[in-house]
């Protein structure tokens, strides 16, 4: 939104003189607050600095506290959110940090297919909808949620309500932290982050260095398209940890969905891939506008993360044994 332009003085003079009657909209006592819809709605008084400090304190305390997380989930689409929900509810002790490049989380799950609103979910993934309390129409072998946004808004609200989950949207992962671990293996040990608008503008400014978040487990759910789709899979190739991308194959619903769910795994030490990013890594088929595999893959990624964490010795967010 462009900043307000300087207004011509004549226009100001045209304005009606400010009412001489005490503008009762301004109160200086909290108990003068009034919810009134007859022209006398009165808010509690506030100073602009109070608003700034309320945001700054909370956001930057969160950044400080989550500089070392237990699990980082990259991408808040249907797979990433399903993973976050299962992980954070099954293990409320874990600090789960979600990083989403878009201002609006939700990925490709706000609509069904070709901008149509209904969302198709093949059984048995309908069980997850029941767990979330999302109504649907049962068509026998699949169910239909009347609007994809009903799924996405519901899971988003449930995930954000969890005390151990932090979502940083408009924040891009622009690299991976990769280092040699206690066994001499190359391990993904965190992510390199920046404001998305900065990450997309490195060619327009000189060096705008990033920030970092370290964690023993990174779950990448960056999808297969969009400006940063399949980000981690592509980074594994350029970092020499993956020979080449498998490249997503043509649409085949019956092959694609089980392949994505069953293929969800730790693809390199410390990094789990889930959702459609996996189709680019493995070269599995795409399934088109059916979302059950995203939910089930996210759930499987959560189980994989718990398996890794419970079978590792972790000190200060690092796997040491
Ligand atoms: O919804 P997506 O794109 O990814 P998934 O895997 O959660 O769900 C995929 C699903 O929507 C489909 O593609 C359906 C089933 N169609 C299949 C088909 O055959 O066409 O969400 C990925 C999210 C997005 O919100 C991105 O903005 C975000 O990940 N993202 C990132 N966030 C932070 N840093 C990054 N580098 C990054 N890259 C992507």
Number of strands: 16
Class by alpha and beta content: alpha/beta
* Element order: H for helix, E for strand: HHEHEEHEEHEEEHEEHEHEEHEHEE
CATH topology of the domain at 97-111 and 146-315: FAD/NAD(P)-binding domain
Rg (C-alpha, Å) = 24 Å
- How far apart are the first and last residues' alpha carbons, in Å? 51 Å
Counted by DSSP, the helix tally is: 10
CATH class of the domain at 97-111 and 146-315: Alpha Beta
The largest sheet, given as strand count, sense and whether it forms a barrel, is: 6 strands, mixed
Mean pLDDT: 93
Helix fraction, binned, reads: 25-40%
Strand order of the largest sheet: 6-2-1-10-13-12
CATH homologous superfamily identity of the domain at 97-111 and 146-315: FAD/NAD(P)-binding domain
Unique bound compounds? ligand 48N
Q: Quick one: overall form?
A: globular
The CATH architecture of the domain at 97-111 and 146-315 is: 3-Layer(bba) Sandwich
Low-confidence residue ranges: 14-21
Q: How much strand content do the residues show?
A: 15-25%
Organism: Pisolithus tinctorius Marx 270
Binding site for substrate: 79, 100-101, 108, 173, 209, 224, 276, 286-288
Protein name: Thiamine thiazole synthase
Pfam families: Thi4
What does the model show?
The model is unreliable at 14-21 (pLDDT under 50). The chain has a domain at 97-111 and 146-315: FAD/NAD(P)-binding domain (3-Layer(bba) Sandwich). The strands form 5 sheets. Strands 6-2-1-10-13-12 form a 6-stranded mixed sheet, sandwiched between helices. The longest helix has 19 residues, at 292-310. It has 10 helices and 16 strands. It has helices at 9-14, 48-65, 78-90, 126-132, 148-160, 196-199, 231-238, 253-263, 277-282, 292-310, and strands at 71-74, 96-100, 119-122, 137-138, 142-145, 165-169, 171-180, 186-195, 211-214, 217-220, 249-251, 265-268, 271-273, 285-286, 314-315, 318-319. It is globular and about 65 Å long. The protein is 33% helix and 21% strand. With 321 residues, the chain is of the alpha/beta class. Helix 3 (78-90) packs parallel to helix 5 (148-160) and helix 3 (78-90) packs across helix 10. Ligand 48N binds next to helix 3, strand 2 and strand 7. Its cofactor is Fe cation. Homooctamer. It holds the Pfam family Thi4. GO terms for molecular function: cysteine-dependent adenosine diphosphate thiazole synthase activity; iron ion binding. It is found in: Cytoplasm; Nucleus.
């Amino acid at each position: 939104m462009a900043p307000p332009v300087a207004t011509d003085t004549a226009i100001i003079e045209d304005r009606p003189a400010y009412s001489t009657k005490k503008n009762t909209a301004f109160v200086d006592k909290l108990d003068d607050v009034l919810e009134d819809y007859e022209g006398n709605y009165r808010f509690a008084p506030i100073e602009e600095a109070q608003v700034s400090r309320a945001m700054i304190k909370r956001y930057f305390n969160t950044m400080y506290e989550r500089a070392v997380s237990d699990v980082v989930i990259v991408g808040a689409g249907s797979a990433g959110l399903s993973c976050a929900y299962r992980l954070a509810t099954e293990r409320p002790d874990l600090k789960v940090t979600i990083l989403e490049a878009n201002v609006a989380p939700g990925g490709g799950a706000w609509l069904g297919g070709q901008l149509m609103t209904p969302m198709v979910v093949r059984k048995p993934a309908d069980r997850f909808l029941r767990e979330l309390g999302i109504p649907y129409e049962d068509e026998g072998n699949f169910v239909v949620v009347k609007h994809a946004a009903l799924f996405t808004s519901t899971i988003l609200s449930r995930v954000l309500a969890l005390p151990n989950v932090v979502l940083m949207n408009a924040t891009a992962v622009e690299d991976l932290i990769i280092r040699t671990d206690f066994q001499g293996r190359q391990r993904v040990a965190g992510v390199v982050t920046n404001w998305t608008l900065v990450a997309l503008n490195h060619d327009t400014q000189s060096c705008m260095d990033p920030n970092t978040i370290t964690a023993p487990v990174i779950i990448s759910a960056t999808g297969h398209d969009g400006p940063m789709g399949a980000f981690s899979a592509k980074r594994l190739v350029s970092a020499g940890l993956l020979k080449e991308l498998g490249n997503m194959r043509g649409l085949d619903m019956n092959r694609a969905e089980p392949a994505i769910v069953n293929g969800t795994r730790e693809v390199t030490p410390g990094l789990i891939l889930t959702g459609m990013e996996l189709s680019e890594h493995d070269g599995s088929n795409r399934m088109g506008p059916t979302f059950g595999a995203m939910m089930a893959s996210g759930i499987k990624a959560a189980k994989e993360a718990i398996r890794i964490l419970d079978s590792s010795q972790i000190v200060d967010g690092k796997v040491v044994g």
